[in-house]
Design a protein that fits this description.
Blueprint: H1 4-17, E1 23-28, H2 41-48, E2 57-59, E3 62-66, E4 71-76, E5 81-86, E6 96-102, E7 109-114, E8 120-125, H3 149-158, H4 163-168, H5 178-188, H6 201-222, E9 262-266, E10 269-273
Antiparallel strand pairs: 1-6, 2-3, 3-4, 4-8, 5-7, 6-7, 9-10
The protein binds a DNA duplex (16 and 16 nucleotides) through loops.
DNA sequence: TATCCGACCTGTTGGC
DNA sequence: TGCCAACAGGTCGGAT
């Protein structure tokens, strides 16, 4: 499932295969895929036709393609989204939602394929910071060199919520999902239900370091699933699964202490943790 | 105003 | 074998 590291792999692929090309047209095959484009599918297509992609950017799990003229094509892969560069003659995928064609047809077309339709595409103006207006409220992600660790700590201290909720709040820190939240908390020996405001500055710094390390490891693993002709996100790729320490490992021994990993229902999802390494708050 | 929680969506898995 | 419920989870909007 696409997480920040996989989105970054997609960004690199798009930078190679789509950047600097001119979009000739957009075909929306499922309106839900452009639901975040308030003016509708026809307007979405109108705003892309004839525009040149000038770069490929990412913040957290969002990707965007700045276009000449000052707008950008924004993409979120949701849970099952893929952005594929395919030859135009290739048969349509079962869950193909949007097709972008380019004036240099020989280099293929860009397809947005999304089984569960949680992801989507939209076109927005860019703010002065070069970020699409629709995601201007999203915090920087921990892989961003400009991520402000002190500001993150101060924001945590102000929050009357629990640690994992705070990690999943994209306005505090972006790019962290359920899997990497559990993995980073395990590495930091912190319980998910601990009050967000209870960490010292040093402990916050440790947690951020663990988030970065687990994401960097996943990015390195995700990069191996690519071949050179193809921008591919394989949501079912098991490559990094083998490196996970707690997520999805209910009942299996903790890799640190051997205690069986537990799974607890948590806001319509699951939290995985080691009951010995990660003591619950009193 | 801040925080919480259900709905959205579809394929897979497991239980009966 | 077939049916059904549970599950996966990021984001948004309504509820508290």
């Amino acid at each position: 499932m696409p997480e920040l590291p996989e989105v970054e792999v997609v960004r690199r692929g798009l930078d190679q295969w789509v950047a600097r090309r001119v979009i000739s047209g957009a075909q929306v095959l499922h309106p839900r895929a452009v639901r975040r484009h308030a003016a509708g599918p026809a307007d979405f297509a109108d705003r892309l036709a004839g525009r040149r992609v000038t770069a490929v950017r990412r913040r957290g799990k969002y990707l965007w393609l700045p276009l000449d003229g000052g707008s950008a094509l924004l993409a979120h892969l949701g849970m099952s989204g893929q952005l594929l560069v395919q030859p135009g003659r290739a048969p349509d995928e079962k869950h193909l939602r949007v097709r972008l064609t380019f004036d240099d047809t020989a280099r293929g077309e860009l397809r947005f394929v999304d089984q569960r339709t949680f992801g989507g595409l939209s076109v927005h103006r860019l703010t002065g910071d070069g970020v699409p207006e629709a995601i201007a409220h999203i915090a920087r992600d921990p892989m961003d060199p400009a991520f402000d660790e002190d500001a993150f700590h101060d924001a945590l201290r102000r929050r009357a919520t629990t640690l994992k909720r705070a990690l999943l709040d994209q306005t505090l820190i972006s790019g962290v999902g359920n899997i990497y939240a559990d993995e980073a908390l395990w590495r930091a020996r912190l319980h998910y239900d601990r009050p967000a405001g209870s960490l010292t500055r040093r402990r916050t710094a440790e947690l951020v370091r663990h988030i970065r390390e687990v994401m960097a490891a996943a990015l390195a693993a995700g990069g191996t699933s690519f071949d050179s002709l193809y921008v591919n996100v394989n949501g079912q790729s098991g490559y990094f699964d083998r490196s996970l320490d707690v997520y999805g490992r209910e009942g299996l021994p903790c890799r640190r202490c051997g205690t069986p990993v537990r799974r607890r229902p948590w806001t319509n999802r699951s939290s995985y943790f080691c009951p010995r390494c990660q003591r619950p708050p009193r």
